[in-house]
Write a structure and sequence with these properties.
The chain is of the alpha+beta class and about 180 residues long. The protein contains 3 helices and 7 strands, in the order H-E-E-E-E-E-E-E-H-H. It has one domain: Peptide Deformylase, CATH 3.90.45. Strand 6 and strand 7 form a beta hairpin. The longest helix is centred in the first third of the chain and has 16 residues. The structure holds zinc ion.
């Protein structure tokens, strides 16, 4: 079991497109195991490899009773219907915004053993997948806000960074303090 430090906004790798994995190896499976440990410790509902400083197209997720890892994910179908829903991010502790996302997507990729995956995701799971796949493209949820809200979010983030308390990571917070759904 390994809990890895989660990179926060401002770390360059969060803005870089991640590389394709191809055939997952033992090393990738170890990374996936560490991603699960780190996500569950935070706790969060999704975590992408760039958030722990690894520029590979891998993410893990856990929503209600289901969980999984997706390697080299591609969105192959997307609903035209978008819905607003509250999102936080393990890499942007303290900020929560209503973010528009497609209400249903179909994702193809591989599991940790290289077996093909095709997942039809709707509602909150679709939101988590879109958030995580954005991480693999160097996109953060604040980029999906209106220009005014994005500017407000960046100002709030700068204020948090400069405050005497600084940014408090999600990891180790009490459940009373942590919002429900950082992804
Ligand atoms: Zn995130």
């Amino acid at each position: 079991m390994a809990i890895l430090p989660i990179k926060i906004m401002g770390t360059p790798i969060l803005r870089e497109p991640a590389q394709e994995v191809g055939e997952p190896t033992h090393g990738h499976r170890k990374l996936i195991s560490d991603l699960f440990d780190t996500m569950r410790d935070a706790p969060g509902l999704g975590l992408a490899a760039p958030q722990v400083g690894v520029g590979l197209r891998i993410f893990v997720w856990e929503v209600e009773e289901a969980h999984g890892a997706v390697v080299d994910p591609v969105i192959v179908e997307r609903s035209d219907v978008t819905v607003d829903g509250e999102e936080g991010c393990l890499s942007i502790p303290g900020l929560l915004y209503e973010v528009p996302r497609s209400d249903r997507i179909v994702v193809e990729g591989k599991d940790e053993n290289g077996r093909p995956l095709r997942i039809d995701a709707s509602d909150f799971l679709a939101r988590v997948f879109q958030h995580e796949i954005d991480h693999l493209d160097g996109v953060l949820f604040i980029d999906r806000l209106s220009p005014d809200l994005r500017e407000e979010a960046i100002t709030r983030w700068r204020d948090l960074l400069l405050s005497p308390e600084g940014v408090t990571p999600y990891s180790g917070r009490t459940s009373e303090v942590a919002p429900e759904a950082p992804i």
